[in-house]
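A.,

Following up on our hallway conversation. Structure tokens first:
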């Protein structure tokens, strides 16, 4: 249980809003790219209507500057898509790990319940005092697992909301 719940086997939480922020940045950059492409077309039209070589040179330089901006924007889009893919993998791993953690926590709780039932029925005089001590400790442990399961269920819901 501990390797799955303590993060040794994978992430056990997801930052809220991480996926949404990446998507918003990607959409903003895609709109920026479209604006740059429109700007380039406008400059090409102006260059084609230019009256002299000086004006054509000016618009050619503007087009080259926009081309550099377009390439930079495409690079940012590719980087954001890669980040979104990494986020997707991270969230999927977190969901898997959290499900395993919850399963193992429930299994441990079942063991405590079984053990509680066993010590409740203990009547042998030499064992009965020890059984009573154990019986009194079990509810604390069960409660701790219930708290952890609730916490992991909340983390699981957050991760499900973060799925791209």
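Then the amino acids I'd put at each of the 164 positions:
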């Amino acid at each position: 249980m501990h390797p799955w719940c303590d993060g040794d086997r994978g992430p056990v939480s997801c930052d809220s809003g991480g996926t949404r922020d990446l998507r918003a940045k990607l959409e903003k950059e895609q709109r920026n790219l479209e604006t740059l492409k429109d700007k380039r077309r406008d400059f090409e039209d102006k260059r084609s209507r230019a009256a002299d070589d000086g004006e054509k040179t000016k618009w050619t330089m503007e087009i080259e500057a926009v081309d550099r901006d377009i390439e930079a924007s495409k690079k940012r889009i590719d980087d954001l898509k890669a980040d979104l893919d990494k986020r997707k993998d991270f969230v999927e791993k977190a969901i898997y790990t959290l499900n395993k953690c919850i399963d193992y926590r429930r299994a441990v709780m079942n063991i405590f319940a079984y053990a509680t039932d066993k010590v409740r029925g203990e009547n042998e005089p030499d064992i009965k005092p020890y059984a009573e001590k154990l019986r009194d400790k079990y509810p604390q442990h069960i409660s701790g697992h219930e708290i952890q399961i609730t916490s992991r269920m909340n983390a699981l819901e957050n991760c499900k909301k973060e799925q791209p």
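The chain has one domain: 2-161. Curious whether your intuition agrees with the design.

B.
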